[in-house]
Design brief:
431 residues, 21 helices, 76% helix, globular
Length: 431
């Protein structure tokens, strides 16, 4: 006999509504979507979740919250966030970012300035695991290229934003990749392979578009670029290690130690400087780790009160097939990202519900993780109030709206994601 699905309770979703009103409402009212601290907004939402269902004892609800917050995947994800922060900051402190930028610029083809800059941004972002860091490092260089060649500033900066989102979506140490993999229960390398096959056409088309649009401009980069290849090696080692399936803890811990040894060898810091850099990197991930814990506890209460069942039933009414379920997952994470302006938070929030839908319709976890990351990243790269466009616009002294027509890669990434769902590509045998 088929088990009758639970109808759920719409009121249980009130905490999410409160969060969106606080975060999105404050952003619209103040024209600053970072005015309301997201952790504070979610703590208030968690309080509302605890106050719902008054018939239940508060102690029972607190236990449910704590079990959800301490769920193994949540804690494991937090640990990975901390290790990723340590590696990223130690590598940056010992000069890896600067050397990577200088090495990339030294091999930049003079006749493919902007397309080459896009490729460089792809490489740097996939190495660093951060789109904002890549955009911040390369925007001043892109501004110089635009001024020297007469190219539209928005076109050049748009290429950098696109390259930054490429790595944010694919990097082994990106918080979005980690969140997508941990919420869906698959391996980093498997998600990377699936994701890469989907977005590769978008990157190739972007390169072609940039090459055609800038072919009429003449100019070359001037200056001598100095770099140390050994400082780039930790990034390459982490990327290769992830692709061959090295355990993520071993990979990030080993990469941090390797980068630290190089830094001590070249005099970037001493042993205690290495420890400080690792600690600072972990502290930089502290807010994200705490946010994941609070979200985990809040979602556990929402699920207990029937909110997840209500959402599942509502979404299922619009779903008639496995393909429809994939479109539903894409729409779910897209809406959350548009509301929160943070693709990592969007994945952490939408991930558990996406996993339930995927299990119901037998969707491979690798594919679900890829869809979550692709659609959250494509919107994150296009919303004018997101950190990526705001950072680039601020450094280039242009309006965020001026950049939107030139954000080619995120747009194409979203299109490729929709085509991948429509045509069922790639189609792997389920593990």
């Amino acid at each position: 006999m088929t088990k009758e699905p639970k109808k759920g309770n719409a009121l249980a979703l009130l905490p999410i509504g409160i969060f969106l009103i606080l975060f999105l409402g404050t952003g619209i009212a103040t024209q600053d979507f970072y005015r309301m601290p997201v952790l504070v907004a979610f703590l208030i939402a968690a309080t509302v979740a605890l106050l719902l269902n008054p018939k239940e004892k508060m102690q029972t609800k607190l236990e449910i919250f704590c079990k959800g917050a301490g769920e193994s995947n949540i804690i494991l994800m937090c640990m990975i966030f901390l290790l990723a922060g340590a590696f990223s900051n130690v590598a940056k402190s010992m000069g890896a970012v600067e050397s990577t930028v200088q090495l990339s610029l030294s091999i930049l083809p003079t006749h493919l300035l902007v397309a080459g800059l896009f490729i460089i941004a792809c490489f740097i972002s996939i190495s660093m695991g951060t789109s904002v860091g890549t955009i911040t490092a390369l925007t001043p260089i892109g501004l110089g290229i635009a001024q020297e060649t007469g190219m539209p500033i928005a076109l050049v900066i748009g290429a950098i934003i696109g390259g930054g989102m490429f790595g944010d979506n694919l990097s082994m140490i990106s918080d979005t990749t980690i969140a997508a993999v941990r919420t869906q229960g698959c391996e980093l390398k498997d998600k990377f392979k699936t994701n890469f096959l989907i977005v590769l056409p978008a990157a190739i088309i972007t390169i072609i578009i940039l090459t055609v649009l800038t072919s009429k401009y003449q100019g070359s980069m001037k200056g001598v670029y100095t770099y140390s290849f050994i400082q780039v090696v930790p990034y390459i080692a982490v990327l290769v290690g992830a692709l061959i399936g090295v355990n993520v803890f071993v990979l990030l811990a080993g990469g941090t130690v390797f980068a630290g040894l190089i830094g001590m060898f070249n005099g970037s810091f001493d042993f205690f400087g290495f420890m400080q850099a690792a600690g600072d990197g972990m502290m930089g991930m502290e807010d994200l780790a705490m946010l994941s814990i609070v979200i985990g506890g809040t979602l556990a209460l929402i699920k207990y009160n029937g909110g997840i069942d209500f959402l599942l039933n509502s979404i299922k009414k619009c779903i008639r097939s496995k393909k429809g379920a994939e479109f539903g997952i894409a729409a779910l994470v897209s809406v959350v990202d548009l509301c929160t302006a943070n693709n990592t938070i969007a994945i952490v929030m939408a991930g558990p519900l996406a996993k339930d839908i995927a299990e119901e319709y037998d969707i491979d976890p690798r594919r679900t993780a890829s869809l979550l990351d692709i659609f959250s990243s494509c919107w994150q790269g296009m919303i004018p109030y997101g950190a990526q466009i705001l950072a680039a616009a601020g450094l280039a002294a242009v309006s965020p709206m001026e950049l939107l027509p030139y954000i080619y890669y995120p747009m194409l990434m979203g299109i490729c994601g929709l085509l991948a769902i429509a045509f069922g590509f790639p189609n792997f045998k389920r593990k």
